[in-house]
């Protein structure tokens, strides 16, 4: 405890400390994700009243604003949402790119045959509020869209493409096709659940996770340049040893967000 009475020397010393820079090592960086300024078009898309309430509830765990700002989604962009599931990101992308942009919700035929029903994202494409969304049904290795793209986006799906129910798909072919579909300078953004380092493809079917080093190696082998990672979905509390659907970890898995770019030349 500090004594209630201080000598004049001590008081002057404290005053000096308050006005002069201290020597020694700098303070440690703050823990946790660094705050990101969300792009205005993306912020507007997140608050759009046509979004389902259930989607908005998921925003606190999925951080779509930070993720799509990192991806560089802009108005007028042409985007593919690869394996869109229920369309959580499809809706956001649609509003973020605006009427001059377009979103191609790419659903592999392999998934449609497995589900034995029409893709859930079809309902979004039929909704007049999302008139710039087109569903593309095609086999996965033959990835292609009607026009060149600014962004190919896939969230929590890369590991699935290695699963046996998807073929498994030949990712060397898939990634090359994505490379061809992008404009020079276009971005390929991959989000997925992290497996243990060095585990390779061991956990893709059992835990629905993938070693991030495998993703980086496969995508760069197709000609992409690794541009960086957003750590907004990182979670050190995840042991990476439990399946992503386990109630103890669902919605709180450690995930990597990798940004790859097709060279401009």
Automatic annotation (TrEMBL):
<keyword id="KW-0808">Transferase</keyword>
<protein>
    <submittedName>
        <fullName>Putative methyltransferase</fullName>
    </submittedName>
</protein>
<dbReference type="GO" id="GO:0008168">
    <property type="term" value="F:methyltransferase activity"/>
</dbReference>
<keyword id="KW-0732">Signal</keyword>
<keyword id="KW-0489">Methyltransferase</keyword>
<dbReference type="InterPro" id="IPR029063">
    <property type="entry name" value="SAM-dependent_MTases_sf"/>
</dbReference>
<dbReference type="GO" id="GO:0032259">
    <property type="term" value="P:methylation"/>
</dbReference>
<feature type="signal peptide">
    <location>
        <begin position="1"/>
        <end position="18"/>
    </location>
</feature>
<dbReference type="InterPro" id="IPR016980">
    <property type="entry name" value="S-AdoMet-dep_MeTrfase_Alr7345"/>
</dbReference>
């Amino acid at each position: 405890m500090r004594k209630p009475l201080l000598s004049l020397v001590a008081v002057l010393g404290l005053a000096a400390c308050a006005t002069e820079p201290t020597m020694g090592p700098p303070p440690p960086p703050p823990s946790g994700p660094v705050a990101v300024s969300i792009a205005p078009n993306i912020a507007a898309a997140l608050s759009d009243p046509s979004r389902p309430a259930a989607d908005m509830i998921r925003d606190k765990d999925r951080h779509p604003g930070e993720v799509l700002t990192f991806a560089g989604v802009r108005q007028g962009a042409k985007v593919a949402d690869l394996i869109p599931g229920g369309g959580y990101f499809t809706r956001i992308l649609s509003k973020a790119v605006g009427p001059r942009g377009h979103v191609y919700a790419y659903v592999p035929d392999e998934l449609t045959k497995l589900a034995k029903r029409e893709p859930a994202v079809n309902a979004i494409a039929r909704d007049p509020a999302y008139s710039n969304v087109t569903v593309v049904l095609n086999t996965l290795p033959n990835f292609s869209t009607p026009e060149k793209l600014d962004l190919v986006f896939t969230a929590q799906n890369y590991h699935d493409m290695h699963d046996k129910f998807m073929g498994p798909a030949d990712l060397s072919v898939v990634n090359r096709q994505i490379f061809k579909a992008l404009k020079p300078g276009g971005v390929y953004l991959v989000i997925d659940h992290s497996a243990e380092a060095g585990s390779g493809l061991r956990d893709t079917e059992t835990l629905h996770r993938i070693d991030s080093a495998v993703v980086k190696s496969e995508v760069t082998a197709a000609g992409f340049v690794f541009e960086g990672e957003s750590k907004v979905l990182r979670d050190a509390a995840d042991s990476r040893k439990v399946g992503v659907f386990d109630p103890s970890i669902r919605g709180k898995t450690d995930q990597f967000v990798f940004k790859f770019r097709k060279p401009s030349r």
